Amino acid sequence: MYDIIFLMDDSGSIEQGKLQGELKSLLKSTAFASSLFDQDGFSVRFMNSDREADNIRHGQQAEDLVDGVQFWGATPLVASLRKLLKKQLGEPNQITTVQKPLLVIIITDGMVNSLFVASRLLHGTDAVYSPPTVLVKNFKN
Hints:
Layout: E1 3-8, H1 12-16, H2 20-35, E2 42-46, E3 52-56, H3 59-67, H4 77-89, E4 102-107, H5 114-123, E5 127-128, E6 135-136
Parallel strand pairs: 1-2, 1-4
Antiparallel strand pairs: 2-3, 5-6
């Protein structure tokens, strides 16, 4: 029914807050529920690490994935989301044919790298993906 991708925060604040266990628990409990919407399992991408996984259907797969991640750096949410969408859907404002709707679930502790957010807000470009899966709207009005 959907292609489900989790975009996970793997920043230093996750490690400092000792939230790795929460991430594991969340993905483990999601493995079963997401299989109801996506028979292929779900995918995971991280904001800093190049580590990724597809077709996760079991809690142990998710736990092993998180165990292999080094938590470091900032939280480049905007840049990471753009990269993920470009890879999955192509360039903004281009007609893209998808077999299944894309559902991106972002998991973060909320400590977004202010440099990325400030840059996004100051330069304020809209990026609209077609079909309208994601709309990023500026706040400059």
